[in-house]
Specification:
The structure is a single chain. The protein is an all-beta fold.
Length: 329
């Protein structure tokens, strides 16, 4: 009558069974080539109709050294891998659901190439220092393991040129006077770059000679003649100053600022200065020295030489005595 029942109590319980693995998904790299030490691996979400995907196992393989690095990702669909060194990599992914079922292992179909090394670049010009030409040729040779993508150059910090092959030459024309700089830049496919700076000068003008000659270019009986000079070249500079007398070299490699004394005999003399700059252009200055050290003689006679009632006649006899200048009397 109290309602008690002998025997065990009734218990009701439910549980889930999932024996189906999640679907496979193929990982891929965010880029196939990089010069960085990190890269993101991505994949589409795996599907699981039962217990749902709980995590992913990712395995990164350096295919050059055949070394593996495992990662436990969780339910995320991407992972940033850091600490990469130069080499080739592949990645494989295994999805796992909450029941512990493992999906099929799938791997990247395209490898990752890490290249942090800049290309090797050689660049040069056909000019060493200065030239008198307004045309200069620049050349280069670039090499890189990940293939050199392009070589470009800039002139005097101007606009960058179009892309050229890794082994090429370019002629620069109509260059103005002065110093110019060309920067040659090589970029490889991974984004690494290296540059070489080239410098050269254009000097189309010869040196400027300022000179003075004493006692000057008039006839004189002075046998000592002096010249003084100042020679400038604002671009490549003066490389040599030479002194000549009547076409014969008197002194070479004299100072750009100086003076020189000549002892001259009677006659006409050409005193010449030749200045040469570093690109081989010459300037010439010439002064004429007229020297007459002989003394002419003059004999005068009159006829008749006695008292006369008429106007006498005068006779002159001039002897130049080696004089080379005009005798004036």
């Amino acid at each position: 009558q109290a309602g008690n029942v002998l025997g065990p109590n009734k218990v009701s319980s439910a549980f889930l069974v999932d024996t189906t693995p999640p679907s496979s998904t193929t990982p891929y790299f965010a880029a196939n080539m990089t010069n960085l030490t990190s890269m993101t691996v991505l994949w589409a979400p795996s599907f699981d109709a039962g217990s749902s995907v709980s995590n992913y196992y990712l395995n990164l393989t350096n295919t050059d050294s055949m070394s593996d690095t495992p990662y436990f990702i969780g339910p995320n669909t991407s992972h940033l891998i850091t600490g990469l060194v130069d080499g080739n990599y592949s990645a494989c992914l295994v999805p796992v659901d909450s029941a512990g079922n493992h999906g099929s292992r799938t791997c990247t179909t395209t490898s990752l190439w890490v290249d942090s090394t800049a290309p090797l670049l050689q660049a040069w010009t056909n000019v060493e220092g200065w030239t008198s030409s307004n045309q200069v040729t620049i050349s280069w040779l670039a090499e890189d393991a990940s293939q050199t993508a392009e070589v470009r150059y800039t002139l005097d910090n101007g606009t960058q040129s179009m892309a050229f092959p890794a082994n090429h030459s370019v002629v620069l024309s109509s260059l103005s006077a002065g110093i110019h700089q060309v920067r040659v830049v090589a970029n490889d496919s991974a984004g690494n770059s290296v540059d070489v700076l080239l410098s050269f000068g254009i000097d189309p003008t010869p040196p400027v000679i300022q000179a003075q000659h004493l006692p000057g270019q008039s006839w004189t009986n002075q046998t000592t003649h002096a010249i003084s000079w100042n020679i400038t070249d604002s671009l490549s500079g003066v490389s040599n100053v030479a002194l000549f007398l009547n076409g014969v070299l008197v002194q070479d490699n004299v100072s750009v600022n100086g003076m020189w004394n000549y002892t001259l005999g009677s006659g006409t003399h050409n005193i010449t200065i030749v200045a040469t700059n570093d690109v081989g252009l010459n300037s010439t200055w010439t002064s004429i020295a007229l020297v007459d050290s002989a003394t002419p003689s003059l004999t005068c006679s009159v006829y008749p030489n006695t008292w006369t009632s008429t106007t006498p006649s005068f006779y002159f006899d001039v002897q130049v005595n080696g004089s080379v200048s005009n005798v004036v009397y």
